[in-house]
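User: Please predict structures.

Assistant: First:
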Amino acid sequence: MPDLSDADVLLLRQVACGALFGATSRATGIEEAKVGAAILALLAKVGAKSRFHASALGAGWGLVTDVHAVNPAGKSLSAQQVEVLAGLVGGEDAAAIAQRLGLTVNTVKTYVQTILRTLGVRSREQASAAAVLTGLVSLRALGAAWPDVRLGELRQPAGAR
């Protein structure tokens, strides 16, 4: 995990919650016109491919602990939808996910919308963080250096696994 300041962590949490630039500006004190540049600098600092990858990394590091899901549908995701979600967690765009899974880009986009609705979130950033926090995907989805376990498994005592 990179060395992040308190301001970096606050910005990362705003990104993970899918906050708009105005809300992010009010929460962080960054001028609204400079929020985009601040987010880009944060992505570089954490080595993220996208805002949704940064959100998932923040959850994996324990810096993001809640994404304010609203009204989840209570349904489970299909195996293919979980694979699409894992792609988002890893920072892949729709075209890369489609190519990896042998789907069309439009199918991936439809799956993403279904995933957002099912999880009760508004953005890919929230969905990515929620996927890590709830153990929908293995931490390996964050990158090859991460263990192939779910976040909850790391929090359990060794004898409880």
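Second:
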Amino acid sequence: MTIRLRAHHLLCVLTYVGKGYSPAFTVNYDAIAQRLSRGEDILLVSGPDDVCAPLLDGPEPHCLNESVIERDRLAARDVEDLLALPIQPGVRLDLDAATLARMRRAFSVGGVRKACGGCEWNELCGAIAAGGFPDTKVQRSVVPR
């Protein structure tokens, strides 16, 4: 299977530790984190994705806000520069151990955090990164050859 993610969620998965907007949101995100950890690939999408799904039934879901669309644009640009890969809808990515480590290093030094400005989770994510990403739910191991 494939996990559908919008661009800024490429950053969110780096620090996800099981906290979220609601119990349904965290149950869904935990399942996505497990799938990413097992190696499922990512399909980049425009707008609401698999992470957003539990929020879409609520009144005025923030997933549709212009500020979130701007967050996607900023994240896509930063991740594209970091990985030297196109980060746009329709592109498939493998978040392997090396890519995850590279993205976390860049995140921890602020290299891919322009999209995080104004996000209510920014402080928590910054603390997780500063602490070395303990207890994060998305984990990939390097497979020996």
